[in-house]
Amino acid sequence: MGKVSKIEFLKEKAIELRKTALTMIHEANSGHPGGSLSAADIMAALYFDELRLNPNDPQWEDRDRFVLSKGHVCPILYSALAIRGFFPLEEIYTLRKYGSILQGHPDMKRCPGIDISTGSLGQGISCAVGMAIAYKRDKKDARVFVLLGDGETNEGQVWEAVESAVKYSLDNLVIIIDNNGLQNDGTCAEIMPTQDLYEKFKAFGCKVYHIDGHDMEQIVDVLSKARNDKGCGKPIAIVAKTVKGRGVSFMENVVKWHGVAPNDEEYEIAMKELEGGLK
Amino acid sequence: MKALRDGFGDEIVNIGKENKNIYVVDCDIGKSCKTQPFAKEFPEQYINVGIAEQNAAGVGAGLATCGKIPFVCTYAVFGSMRMCEQIRQEICYPMLNVKIACSHGGLTPANDGASHQCIEDLGIMRTLPNMIVIAPGDYYSTRKLVREASKIYGPVYMRFTRDPIPFVYNEDEEFEIGKAKQIKEGNDISIIASGSVLHMAVEAAEKLEAEGVSVRLLDMHTIKPLDNEAVKKALEETEAILTVEDHNIYNGLGSAVCEIAAELGKGRVKRMGVQDQFGESGPYYKLLEQNGVTVELIVDNVKGMLKND
Description:
- The complex is a heterodimer.
- Helix content of chain A is 42%, strand content 12%.
- Chain A has 10 helices and 7 strands.
- Chain A is globular and about 50 Å long.
- Chain B is globular, with a radius of gyration of 19 Å.
- The A-B interface holds A 65, 107-109, 115-120, 122-135, 137-138, 156-157, 160-161, 163-164, 167-168 and B 44-45, 47, 49-50, 52, 54-68, 70, 85-86, 89-90, 93-95.
Protein backbone atom coordinates (compact mmCIF):
# COMPACT_ATOMS: atom_id res chain seq x y z
CA MET A 1 0.00 0.00 0.00
CA GLY A 2 1.35 3.42 -0.93
CA LYS A 3 1.69 6.05 1.77
CA VAL A 4 -1.22 8.17 0.57
CA SER A 5 -3.58 5.26 0.24
CA LYS A 6 -2.45 3.91 3.63
CA ILE A 7 -3.29 7.20 5.32
CA GLU A 8 -6.70 7.26 3.60
CA PHE A 9 -7.33 3.65 4.61
CA LEU A 10 -6.46 4.36 8.25
CA LYS A 11 -8.64 7.49 8.29
CA GLU A 12 -11.54 5.39 7.09
CA LYS A 13 -10.81 2.78 9.75
CA ALA A 14 -10.75 5.49 12.42
CA ILE A 15 -14.26 6.53 11.37
CA GLU A 16 -15.40 2.92 11.36
CA LEU A 17 -13.97 2.48 14.88
CA ARG A 18 -15.78 5.60 16.09
CA LYS A 19 -19.09 4.45 14.65
CA THR A 20 -18.71 0.95 16.05
CA ALA A 21 -17.78 2.28 19.50
CA LEU A 22 -20.76 4.66 19.56
CA THR A 23 -23.04 1.90 18.36
CA MET A 24 -22.06 -0.41 21.20
CA ILE A 25 -22.24 2.34 23.83
CA HIS A 26 -25.67 3.36 22.52
CA GLU A 27 -26.86 -0.24 22.56
CA ALA A 28 -25.51 -0.75 26.10
CA ASN A 29 -26.86 2.63 27.13
CA SER A 30 -23.68 2.85 29.16
CA GLY A 31 -19.98 3.42 28.56
CA HIS A 32 -17.38 6.08 27.86
CA PRO A 33 -17.68 7.80 24.47
CA GLY A 34 -15.48 10.89 25.02
CA GLY A 35 -12.15 9.13 25.53
CA SER A 36 -13.04 6.43 23.02
CA LEU A 37 -13.37 9.09 20.34
CA SER A 38 -10.19 10.95 21.32
CA ALA A 39 -8.20 7.72 21.03
CA ALA A 40 -9.82 6.53 17.77
CA ASP A 41 -7.17 7.71 15.30
CA ILE A 42 -4.30 6.34 17.38
CA MET A 43 -6.12 3.03 17.76
CA ALA A 44 -6.76 2.81 14.02
CA ALA A 45 -3.06 3.32 13.28
CA LEU A 46 -2.06 0.75 15.87
CA TYR A 47 -4.55 -1.98 15.01
CA PHE A 48 -4.63 -1.59 11.24
CA ASP A 49 -0.98 -0.81 10.60
CA GLU A 50 1.56 -0.90 13.40
CA LEU A 51 0.85 -3.80 15.73
CA ARG A 52 2.12 -7.25 14.81
CA LEU A 53 -0.84 -9.46 15.71
CA ASN A 54 -2.61 -12.60 14.61
CA PRO A 55 -6.39 -12.54 15.14
CA ASN A 56 -6.47 -16.31 14.60
CA ASP A 57 -3.95 -16.81 17.37
CA PRO A 58 -4.52 -14.07 19.96
CA GLN A 59 -2.01 -15.69 22.33
CA TRP A 60 0.75 -15.82 19.69
CA GLU A 61 3.95 -15.66 21.74
CA ASP A 62 5.75 -13.20 19.51
CA ARG A 63 2.93 -10.72 19.13
CA ASP A 64 3.18 -7.04 19.90
CA ARG A 65 1.19 -6.38 23.02
CA PHE A 66 -1.24 -3.59 23.65
CA VAL A 67 -2.25 -2.42 27.12
CA LEU A 68 -5.24 -0.12 27.44
CA SER A 69 -4.20 1.48 30.71
CA LYS A 70 -7.19 3.84 30.44
CA GLY A 71 -9.42 0.77 30.46
CA HIS A 72 -12.73 2.65 30.47
CA VAL A 73 -12.36 3.52 26.78
CA CYS A 74 -12.54 -0.17 25.89
CA PRO A 75 -15.34 0.39 23.33
CA ILE A 76 -12.73 1.73 20.93
CA LEU A 77 -10.46 -1.27 21.62
CA TYR A 78 -13.34 -3.74 21.26
CA SER A 79 -14.19 -2.09 17.95
CA ALA A 80 -10.63 -2.57 16.70
CA LEU A 81 -10.53 -6.19 17.85
CA ALA A 82 -13.93 -6.98 16.32
CA ILE A 83 -13.08 -5.41 12.98
CA ARG A 84 -9.69 -7.14 12.95
CA GLY A 85 -11.55 -10.43 13.45
CA PHE A 86 -10.57 -11.38 17.01
CA PHE A 87 -14.25 -12.11 17.61
CA PRO A 88 -17.47 -11.78 15.58
CA LEU A 89 -18.67 -8.24 15.01
CA GLU A 90 -22.12 -9.08 16.44
CA GLU A 91 -20.49 -9.33 19.88
CA ILE A 92 -20.42 -5.55 20.08
CA TYR A 93 -24.14 -5.60 20.85
CA THR A 94 -23.38 -7.47 24.09
CA LEU A 95 -21.21 -4.74 25.63
CA ARG A 96 -21.77 -4.50 29.39
CA LYS A 97 -24.51 -7.14 29.25
CA TYR A 98 -24.69 -10.19 31.49
CA GLY A 99 -22.39 -12.97 30.34
CA SER A 100 -20.66 -10.87 27.68
CA ILE A 101 -17.02 -11.20 26.71
CA LEU A 102 -17.14 -7.39 26.49
CA GLN A 103 -17.09 -6.38 30.12
CA GLY A 104 -17.45 -2.75 31.17
CA HIS A 105 -13.67 -2.73 31.47
CA PRO A 106 -11.34 -5.13 29.57
CA ASP A 107 -11.14 -8.68 30.90
CA MET A 108 -8.29 -10.77 29.50
CA LYS A 109 -9.90 -13.99 30.65
CA ARG A 110 -13.05 -13.45 28.62
CA CYS A 111 -12.11 -11.43 25.59
CA PRO A 112 -9.64 -12.60 22.91
CA GLY A 113 -6.99 -10.01 22.13
CA ILE A 114 -6.93 -8.38 25.56
CA ASP A 115 -3.39 -8.70 26.88
CA ILE A 116 -4.15 -7.61 30.44
CA SER A 117 -7.30 -6.77 32.38
CA THR A 118 -7.44 -3.08 33.19
CA GLY A 119 -9.89 -0.52 34.52
CA SER A 120 -8.23 0.69 37.69
CA LEU A 121 -6.21 3.63 36.44
CA GLY A 122 -2.46 3.83 36.68
CA GLN A 123 -1.93 0.10 36.77
CA GLY A 124 -1.81 -0.99 33.14
CA ILE A 125 1.45 0.78 32.50
CA SER A 126 3.15 -1.25 35.24
CA CYS A 127 1.97 -4.44 33.58
CA ALA A 128 3.29 -3.15 30.26
CA VAL A 129 6.68 -2.62 31.90
CA GLY A 130 6.65 -6.22 33.13
CA MET A 131 5.82 -7.46 29.63
CA ALA A 132 8.54 -5.34 28.04
CA ILE A 133 11.12 -6.62 30.53
CA ALA A 134 10.10 -10.21 29.78
CA TYR A 135 10.36 -9.60 26.03
CA LYS A 136 13.79 -8.08 26.42
CA ARG A 137 15.10 -10.84 28.64
CA ASP A 138 13.70 -13.44 26.23
CA LYS A 139 15.36 -11.57 23.36
CA LYS A 140 12.12 -11.19 21.45
CA ASP A 141 11.67 -8.57 18.74
CA ALA A 142 8.09 -7.85 19.68
CA ARG A 143 7.16 -4.62 21.39
CA VAL A 144 4.67 -3.41 23.98
CA PHE A 145 2.34 -0.45 23.47
CA VAL A 146 0.40 1.23 26.22
CA LEU A 147 -2.27 3.90 25.97
CA LEU A 148 -2.54 6.24 28.96
CA GLY A 149 -5.01 8.98 29.67
CA ASP A 150 -3.70 12.40 30.68
CA GLY A 151 -5.98 12.41 33.73
CA GLU A 152 -4.60 8.97 34.47
CA THR A 153 -1.18 10.48 35.05
CA ASN A 154 -2.61 11.86 38.32
CA GLU A 155 -1.95 8.36 39.63
CA GLY A 156 1.50 8.23 41.23
CA GLN A 157 1.94 4.66 40.08
CA VAL A 158 2.27 5.89 36.49
CA TRP A 159 5.50 7.61 37.42
CA GLU A 160 6.77 4.62 39.35
CA ALA A 161 6.24 2.63 36.19
CA VAL A 162 7.96 5.18 33.96
CA GLU A 163 10.99 5.23 36.28
CA SER A 164 11.27 1.47 36.05
CA ALA A 165 10.88 1.53 32.25
CA VAL A 166 13.77 3.97 32.06
CA LYS A 167 15.91 1.98 34.51
CA TYR A 168 15.47 -1.17 32.42
CA SER A 169 16.12 0.67 29.12
CA LEU A 170 12.80 -0.45 27.65
CA ASP A 171 13.11 0.83 24.10
CA ASN A 172 10.59 -1.88 23.20
CA LEU A 173 7.94 0.01 25.16
CA VAL A 174 5.88 2.73 23.51
CA ILE A 175 3.81 4.86 25.89
CA ILE A 176 1.11 6.88 24.16
CA ILE A 177 -0.64 9.60 26.13
CA ASP A 178 -4.14 10.54 24.97
CA ASN A 179 -3.80 14.19 25.96
CA ASN A 180 -7.41 15.30 25.57
CA GLY A 181 -7.29 17.71 28.49
CA LEU A 182 -10.45 16.52 30.23
CA GLN A 183 -11.09 14.12 33.05
CA ASN A 184 -14.16 12.85 34.89
CA ASP A 185 -14.99 15.86 37.04
CA GLY A 186 -13.81 18.64 34.72
CA THR A 187 -10.82 19.84 32.76
CA CYS A 188 -7.39 18.58 33.79
CA ALA A 189 -6.50 22.22 34.42
CA GLU A 190 -9.29 22.47 37.00
CA ILE A 191 -9.07 19.07 38.62
CA MET A 192 -5.36 18.29 38.66
CA PRO A 193 -3.10 20.17 36.27
CA THR A 194 -0.78 17.72 34.56
CA GLN A 195 1.74 20.45 33.73
CA ASP A 196 3.81 19.88 30.62
CA LEU A 197 3.62 16.16 29.93
CA TYR A 198 6.28 16.32 27.22
CA GLU A 199 8.76 17.84 29.66
CA LYS A 200 7.73 15.46 32.44
CA PHE A 201 8.31 12.30 30.40
CA LYS A 202 11.55 13.79 29.11
CA ALA A 203 12.74 14.60 32.62
CA PHE A 204 12.01 11.02 33.65
CA GLY A 205 14.35 9.85 30.88
CA CYS A 206 12.05 8.83 28.03
CA LYS A 207 12.53 9.58 24.37
CA VAL A 208 9.53 11.86 23.84
CA TYR A 209 7.50 12.96 20.83
CA HIS A 210 4.66 15.40 20.58
CA ILE A 211 2.02 15.00 17.89
CA ASP A 212 -1.50 15.95 16.89
CA GLY A 213 -3.32 12.76 17.84
CA HIS A 214 -5.93 13.26 15.12
CA ASP A 215 -3.51 13.85 12.23
CA MET A 216 -3.09 10.41 10.70
CA GLU A 217 0.11 11.32 8.87
CA GLN A 218 1.69 12.45 12.11
CA ILE A 219 0.53 9.33 13.92
CA VAL A 220 1.91 6.98 11.28
CA ASP A 221 5.11 8.96 11.12
CA VAL A 222 5.71 8.94 14.88
CA LEU A 223 4.99 5.22 15.13
CA SER A 224 7.57 4.57 12.46
CA LYS A 225 10.06 6.71 14.40
CA ALA A 226 9.28 4.76 17.56
CA ARG A 227 9.96 1.54 15.62
CA ASN A 228 13.35 2.87 14.61
CA ASP A 229 14.06 3.95 18.17
CA LYS A 230 14.38 0.31 19.18
CA GLY A 231 17.98 0.15 20.33
CA CYS A 232 18.07 3.70 21.68
CA GLY A 233 17.95 2.39 25.23
CA LYS A 234 15.01 4.53 26.33
CA PRO A 235 11.27 3.97 26.51
CA ILE A 236 9.39 6.01 23.93
CA ALA A 237 6.65 8.40 25.05
CA ILE A 238 4.28 9.98 22.55
CA VAL A 239 2.23 12.88 23.87
CA ALA A 240 -0.71 12.99 21.49
CA LYS A 241 -2.74 16.19 21.70
CA THR A 242 -6.33 15.15 21.19
CA VAL A 243 -9.87 16.42 21.57
CA LYS A 244 -12.21 14.45 23.80
CA GLY A 245 -15.27 13.42 21.82
CA ARG A 246 -13.48 14.12 18.51
CA GLY A 247 -15.67 13.57 15.46
CA VAL A 248 -19.04 14.31 17.04
CA SER A 249 -19.58 18.07 17.27
CA PHE A 250 -21.70 18.15 20.40
CA MET A 251 -19.35 15.79 22.26
CA GLU A 252 -16.12 17.59 21.44
CA ASN A 253 -14.44 19.06 24.48
CA VAL A 254 -17.52 18.59 26.65
CA VAL A 255 -16.80 17.07 30.07
CA LYS A 256 -20.24 15.48 30.31
CA TRP A 257 -19.46 13.02 27.52
CA HIS A 258 -16.77 11.27 29.55
CA GLY A 259 -19.09 8.52 30.67
CA VAL A 260 -22.59 9.04 29.29
CA ALA A 261 -24.24 7.12 26.45
CA PRO A 262 -25.99 9.02 23.65
CA ASN A 263 -29.76 8.69 23.47
CA ASP A 264 -31.43 7.60 20.21
CA GLU A 265 -31.56 11.07 18.75
CA GLU A 266 -28.02 11.96 19.74
CA TYR A 267 -26.82 8.66 18.35
CA GLU A 268 -28.49 9.33 14.97
CA ILE A 269 -26.93 12.78 14.74
CA ALA A 270 -23.51 11.45 15.76
CA MET A 271 -23.58 8.67 13.15
CA LYS A 272 -24.61 11.14 10.47
CA GLU A 273 -21.84 13.54 11.39
CA LEU A 274 -19.29 10.77 11.15
CA GLU A 275 -20.28 9.95 7.57
CA GLY A 276 -17.59 11.24 5.30
CA GLY A 277 -14.85 11.51 7.88
CA LEU A 278 -13.53 14.01 10.41
CA LYS A 279 -14.45 17.61 9.78
CA MET B 1 16.58 -21.77 65.22
CA LYS B 2 16.27 -20.10 61.88
CA ALA B 3 14.11 -17.32 60.43
CA LEU B 4 11.32 -17.99 57.95
CA ARG B 5 12.61 -15.27 55.65
CA ASP B 6 15.87 -17.23 55.42
CA GLY B 7 13.85 -20.28 54.41
CA PHE B 8 12.43 -18.27 51.54
CA GLY B 9 15.80 -16.77 50.57
CA ASP B 10 17.50 -20.16 50.59
CA GLU B 11 14.81 -22.01 48.66
CA ILE B 12 14.18 -19.39 46.00
CA VAL B 13 17.79 -19.80 44.88
CA ASN B 14 17.27 -23.51 44.37
CA ILE B 15 14.02 -23.00 42.51
CA GLY B 16 15.53 -20.23 40.39
CA LYS B 17 18.35 -22.54 39.37
CA GLU B 18 15.94 -25.24 38.23
CA ASN B 19 13.48 -22.99 36.44
CA LYS B 20 14.64 -19.95 34.47
CA ASN B 21 11.11 -18.55 34.49
CA ILE B 22 11.28 -17.94 38.24
CA TYR B 23 11.75 -14.21 38.79
CA VAL B 24 12.17 -12.07 41.85
CA VAL B 25 10.77 -8.53 41.88
CA ASP B 26 12.16 -6.53 44.80
CA CYS B 27 11.16 -3.17 46.29
CA ASP B 28 14.47 -1.99 47.75
CA ILE B 29 14.23 -4.23 50.79
CA GLY B 30 15.77 -7.25 49.11
CA LYS B 31 18.41 -7.44 51.81
CA SER B 32 15.73 -7.85 54.46
CA CYS B 33 13.67 -10.19 52.31
CA LYS B 34 16.79 -12.34 51.80
CA THR B 35 16.68 -12.24 48.02
CA GLN B 36 20.21 -10.97 47.53
CA PRO B 37 21.80 -14.39 46.88
CA PHE B 38 19.16 -14.88 44.15
CA ALA B 39 19.89 -11.43 42.75
CA LYS B 40 23.59 -12.15 42.60
CA GLU B 41 23.24 -15.59 41.09
CA PHE B 42 20.46 -14.88 38.58
CA PRO B 43 20.61 -11.22 37.51
CA GLU B 44 18.59 -12.07 34.39
CA GLN B 45 15.76 -13.30 36.58
CA TYR B 46 15.91 -10.41 38.99
CA ILE B 47 14.25 -6.99 39.00
CA ASN B 48 14.39 -4.28 41.66
CA VAL B 49 11.86 -1.51 41.08
CA GLY B 50 12.87 0.51 44.12
CA ILE B 51 10.48 1.82 46.74
CA ALA B 52 7.45 1.38 44.52
CA GLU B 53 5.33 -1.53 45.67
CA GLN B 54 2.31 -0.73 43.51
CA ASN B 55 4.45 -0.81 40.42
CA ALA B 56 6.10 -4.02 41.61
CA ALA B 57 2.75 -5.81 41.70
CA GLY B 58 1.91 -4.63 38.18
CA VAL B 59 5.34 -5.53 36.83
CA GLY B 60 4.84 -8.97 38.34
CA ALA B 61 1.50 -9.29 36.56
CA GLY B 62 3.03 -8.25 33.24
CA LEU B 63 5.86 -10.76 33.64
CA ALA B 64 3.33 -13.49 34.42
CA THR B 65 1.43 -12.83 31.19
CA CYS B 66 4.70 -13.67 29.43
CA GLY B 67 5.10 -17.01 31.18
CA LYS B 68 7.32 -15.91 34.04
CA ILE B 69 6.67 -16.91 37.65
CA PRO B 70 7.47 -13.78 39.61
CA PHE B 71 7.88 -13.66 43.38
CA VAL B 72 7.17 -10.06 44.35
CA CYS B 73 8.99 -9.41 47.61
CA THR B 74 8.48 -6.79 50.28
CA TYR B 75 7.32 -6.54 53.89
CA ALA B 76 3.90 -7.95 54.72
CA VAL B 77 2.56 -4.54 55.67
CA PHE B 78 3.30 -3.17 52.19
CA GLY B 79 2.63 -6.39 50.30
CA SER B 80 -0.86 -6.75 51.70
CA MET B 81 -1.87 -3.11 51.89
CA ARG B 82 0.22 -0.75 49.77
CA MET B 83 -0.19 -3.05 46.77
CA CYS B 84 -3.52 -4.52 47.74
CA GLU B 85 -5.64 -3.11 44.95
CA GLN B 86 -2.97 -3.86 42.37
CA ILE B 87 -2.96 -7.47 43.57
CA ARG B 88 -6.72 -7.57 43.32
CA GLN B 89 -7.02 -6.00 39.89
CA GLU B 90 -3.95 -7.22 38.04
CA ILE B 91 -3.18 -10.54 39.74
CA CYS B 92 -6.25 -12.09 41.37
CA TYR B 93 -8.90 -10.93 38.91
CA PRO B 94 -7.03 -12.21 35.83
CA MET B 95 -5.78 -15.19 37.89
CA LEU B 96 -2.12 -14.66 37.04
CA ASN B 97 0.74 -16.76 38.27
CA VAL B 98 2.26 -14.24 40.67
CA LYS B 99 3.49 -14.98 44.17
CA ILE B 100 3.52 -12.24 46.78
CA ALA B 101 6.31 -13.28 49.14
CA CYS B 102 6.49 -11.11 52.24
CA SER B 103 8.81 -11.00 55.18
CA HIS B 104 8.19 -9.21 58.48
CA GLY B 105 4.67 -10.56 58.98
CA GLY B 106 2.86 -10.21 62.29
CA LEU B 107 4.54 -8.43 65.18
CA THR B 108 7.98 -9.75 64.21
CA PRO B 109 9.50 -6.45 63.08
CA ALA B 110 9.16 -5.81 66.78
CA ASN B 111 11.66 -3.02 67.27
CA ASP B 112 10.40 -1.19 64.19
CA GLY B 113 7.07 -0.53 65.85
CA ALA B 114 3.52 -0.50 64.57
CA SER B 115 4.24 1.09 61.18
CA HIS B 116 6.18 -1.99 60.08
CA GLN B 117 4.32 -4.69 61.95
CA CYS B 118 1.52 -6.40 60.07
CA ILE B 119 -1.41 -7.93 61.86
CA GLU B 120 -3.94 -7.57 59.03
CA ASP B 121 -2.40 -9.26 55.98
CA LEU B 122 -3.88 -12.75 56.19
CA GLY B 123 -7.38 -11.39 56.58
CA ILE B 124 -7.02 -8.93 53.73
CA MET B 125 -5.49 -11.47 51.36
CA ARG B 126 -8.02 -14.13 52.35
CA THR B 127 -10.79 -11.86 51.12
CA LEU B 128 -9.45 -11.70 47.56
CA PRO B 129 -10.99 -14.26 45.19
CA ASN B 130 -8.44 -16.65 43.61
CA MET B 131 -5.84 -15.91 46.28
CA ILE B 132 -4.11 -18.69 48.21
CA VAL B 133 -2.77 -17.61 51.60
CA ILE B 134 0.11 -19.37 53.33
CA ALA B 135 1.78 -18.69 56.69
CA PRO B 136 4.46 -21.30 57.37
CA GLY B 137 5.53 -22.08 60.93
CA ASP B 138 9.21 -22.90 60.69
CA TYR B 139 12.25 -22.70 58.44
CA TYR B 140 11.87 -26.12 56.84
CA SER B 141 8.17 -25.87 56.18
CA THR B 142 8.81 -22.46 54.65
CA ARG B 143 11.26 -23.97 52.18
CA LYS B 144 8.87 -26.75 51.25
CA LEU B 145 5.86 -24.47 50.91
CA VAL B 146 7.76 -21.95 48.78
CA ARG B 147 8.62 -24.80 46.45
CA GLU B 148 5.01 -26.03 46.42
CA ALA B 149 3.77 -22.50 45.70
CA SER B 150 6.09 -22.26 42.72
CA LYS B 151 4.60 -25.44 41.28
CA ILE B 152 0.94 -24.45 41.36
CA TYR B 153 -0.53 -21.97 38.89
CA GLY B 154 -2.12 -18.84 40.29
CA PRO B 155 -1.79 -16.11 42.90
CA VAL B 156 -0.29 -17.01 46.27
CA TYR B 157 0.38 -14.76 49.25
CA MET B 158 3.14 -16.07 51.50
CA ARG B 159 3.89 -14.62 54.89
CA PHE B 160 7.33 -15.00 56.42
CA THR B 161 8.67 -13.49 59.58
CA ARG B 162 11.81 -11.71 60.62
CA ASP B 163 13.55 -13.39 63.53
CA PRO B 164 14.95 -16.88 64.05
CA ILE B 165 12.45 -19.24 65.66
CA PRO B 166 12.83 -22.88 66.75
CA PHE B 167 12.53 -25.66 64.18
CA VAL B 168 9.31 -27.63 64.36
CA TYR B 169 10.09 -30.06 61.55
CA ASN B 170 13.07 -31.84 60.12
CA GLU B 171 14.13 -31.11 56.58
CA ASP B 172 12.53 -34.24 55.09
CA GLU B 173 8.99 -33.38 56.10
CA GLU B 174 6.66 -32.86 53.14
CA PHE B 175 3.85 -30.31 52.95
CA GLU B 176 0.80 -29.95 50.78
CA ILE B 177 -0.86 -26.57 50.22
CA GLY B 178 -4.36 -26.62 51.67
CA LYS B 179 -3.72 -29.61 53.90
CA ALA B 180 -3.13 -29.10 57.61
CA LYS B 181 -0.12 -30.82 59.13
CA GLN B 182 -1.02 -32.83 62.17
CA ILE B 183 1.94 -32.46 64.50
CA LYS B 184 0.40 -34.37 67.35
CA GLU B 185 -2.54 -36.76 67.68
CA GLY B 186 -4.91 -36.20 70.56
CA ASN B 187 -8.58 -36.41 71.46
CA ASP B 188 -9.27 -34.09 74.40
CA ILE B 189 -8.82 -30.79 72.65
CA SER B 190 -7.34 -29.35 69.44
CA ILE B 191 -4.90 -26.52 69.03
CA ILE B 192 -4.73 -25.05 65.55
CA ALA B 193 -1.84 -22.71 65.03
CA SER B 194 0.11 -21.16 62.19
CA GLY B 195 3.08 -18.91 61.53
CA SER B 196 5.78 -17.87 63.91
CA VAL B 197 3.83 -18.80 67.03
CA LEU B 198 3.49 -22.43 65.96
CA HIS B 199 6.50 -23.44 68.06
CA MET B 200 4.79 -21.96 71.13
CA ALA B 201 1.79 -24.16 70.49
CA VAL B 202 4.12 -27.14 70.19
CA GLU B 203 5.67 -26.34 73.54
CA ALA B 204 2.27 -25.85 75.16
CA ALA B 205 0.98 -29.13 73.75
CA GLU B 206 4.00 -30.95 75.20
CA LYS B 207 3.39 -29.42 78.62
CA LEU B 208 -0.27 -30.35 78.49
CA GLU B 209 0.56 -33.88 77.41
CA ALA B 210 2.89 -34.18 80.42
CA GLU B 211 -0.07 -33.21 82.60
CA GLY B 212 -2.24 -35.85 81.01
CA VAL B 213 -4.18 -33.70 78.54
CA SER B 214 -4.41 -35.27 75.11
CA VAL B 215 -3.92 -32.43 72.61
CA ARG B 216 -4.36 -32.64 68.87
CA LEU B 217 -2.03 -30.07 67.33
CA LEU B 218 -2.54 -28.90 63.76
CA ASP B 219 -0.22 -26.63 61.80
CA MET B 220 -2.66 -24.73 59.58
CA HIS B 221 0.04 -23.35 57.28
CA THR B 222 -2.53 -22.67 54.58
CA ILE B 223 -5.10 -20.15 55.73
CA LYS B 224 -6.88 -20.28 52.39
CA PRO B 225 -8.07 -22.66 51.16
CA LEU B 226 -8.54 -23.78 54.74
CA ASP B 227 -8.38 -27.51 55.38
CA ASN B 228 -12.09 -27.71 56.24
CA GLU B 229 -11.95 -31.46 56.76
CA ALA B 230 -9.24 -31.22 59.39
CA VAL B 231 -11.21 -28.52 61.20
CA LYS B 232 -14.43 -30.54 61.03
CA LYS B 233 -12.68 -33.61 62.37
CA ALA B 234 -11.19 -31.58 65.20
CA LEU B 235 -14.65 -30.23 66.05
CA GLU B 236 -16.21 -33.66 65.97
CA GLU B 237 -13.47 -35.70 67.57
CA THR B 238 -12.23 -33.33 70.29
CA GLU B 239 -13.97 -31.13 72.84
CA ALA B 240 -12.99 -27.75 71.46
CA ILE B 241 -10.49 -25.85 69.32
CA LEU B 242 -8.03 -23.22 70.43
CA THR B 243 -6.51 -21.17 67.61
CA VAL B 244 -3.17 -19.43 68.03
CA GLU B 245 -1.78 -16.91 65.58
CA ASP B 246 0.34 -13.78 65.32
CA HIS B 247 -2.42 -11.81 63.55
CA ASN B 248 -5.44 -9.80 64.53
CA ILE B 249 -8.06 -12.14 65.99
CA TYR B 250 -10.32 -10.70 63.30
CA ASN B 251 -10.20 -12.28 59.85
CA GLY B 252 -7.18 -14.51 60.27
CA LEU B 253 -6.84 -18.18 61.13
CA GLY B 254 -9.13 -17.99 64.15
CA SER B 255 -11.93 -16.37 62.19
CA ALA B 256 -11.56 -18.90 59.38
CA VAL B 257 -11.89 -21.78 61.85
CA CYS B 258 -14.92 -20.11 63.48
CA GLU B 259 -16.63 -19.91 60.10
CA ILE B 260 -16.40 -23.67 59.70
CA ALA B 261 -17.61 -24.27 63.26
CA ALA B 262 -20.56 -21.93 62.79
CA GLU B 263 -21.63 -23.56 59.55
CA LEU B 264 -21.24 -27.01 61.04
CA GLY B 265 -23.33 -25.86 64.01
CA LYS B 266 -21.24 -27.64 66.57
CA GLY B 267 -18.09 -27.31 68.58
CA ARG B 268 -16.46 -24.50 70.42
CA VAL B 269 -13.60 -22.27 69.31
CA LYS B 270 -11.44 -19.84 71.25
CA ARG B 271 -9.08 -17.49 69.46
CA MET B 272 -5.68 -16.37 70.66
CA GLY B 273 -3.97 -13.64 68.69
CA VAL B 274 -3.54 -9.91 68.47
CA GLN B 275 -6.41 -8.21 70.30
CA ASP B 276 -7.41 -5.78 67.56
CA GLN B 277 -4.76 -3.28 68.58
CA PHE B 278 -1.60 -1.89 67.02
CA GLY B 279 1.77 -2.99 68.33
CA GLU B 280 4.65 -0.83 69.44
CA SER B 281 8.43 -1.03 69.59
CA GLY B 282 9.62 -3.72 71.97
CA PRO B 283 10.80 -7.33 72.21
CA TYR B 284 8.71 -9.74 70.08
CA TYR B 285 7.66 -11.98 72.93
CA LYS B 286 6.74 -8.97 75.05
CA LEU B 287 4.40 -7.80 72.28
CA LEU B 288 2.83 -11.24 72.08
CA GLU B 289 2.42 -11.25 75.84
CA GLN B 290 0.67 -7.88 75.63
CA ASN B 291 -1.90 -9.70 73.49
CA GLY B 292 -2.15 -12.70 75.76
CA VAL B 293 -0.15 -15.01 73.55
CA THR B 294 2.32 -16.99 75.69
CA VAL B 295 2.99 -20.70 76.14
CA GLU B 296 1.60 -20.49 79.67
CA LEU B 297 -1.61 -18.84 78.52
CA ILE B 298 -2.08 -21.43 75.78
CA VAL B 299 -1.84 -24.06 78.51
CA ASP B 300 -4.22 -22.14 80.77
CA ASN B 301 -6.72 -21.57 77.99
CA VAL B 302 -6.80 -25.25 77.11
CA LYS B 303 -7.35 -26.21 80.74
CA GLY B 304 -10.05 -23.57 81.13
CA MET B 305 -11.85 -24.74 78.03
CA LEU B 306 -11.80 -28.34 79.22
CA LYS B 307 -13.08 -27.34 82.68
CA ASN B 308 -16.09 -25.57 81.20
CA ASP B 309 -17.18 -28.89 79.76
